Amino acid sequence: MTPVSTANVELTRQAYLAMNRGDVDWLIEHSDPGLEMHFLGVAGEPVLYVGASGIRDYFRDIAEIWDSVEYMPEKVRDLGDRTLTILRRRLCGKKSGLRLEDTVACVCALRGGVVTEIWAYRDLDEVLAGARLDP
Quick one: which H or E segment has residue 22? Predict the structure, then answer.
């Protein structure tokens, strides 16, 4: 039997693969119906997506701005009932063709083999300090 925390790390890795292939159905299947995704918009404003419709809305919003987005997890860390992922994102602007690459951190809460909440941070120091972690 796989320990829960190991399963959480693997679920987190699989979720980023699903995001890269745009597999909304896989993401919905592996998310709690009340999933809350706490993200930041283009201007840094807080954006909340909720449930299956929120996952669909997220992909719709991304497609309006970006021609492509690639998520590359560099480190997925087991925090028990949460995971911390440090990842690189590669983005290509839909209208401008501008290519960007940045590093973000995501904390995922998991329960019973599904994701229940996600928080995304652009300030890695903030998330590491808040979680009392070392880089």
Answer: none
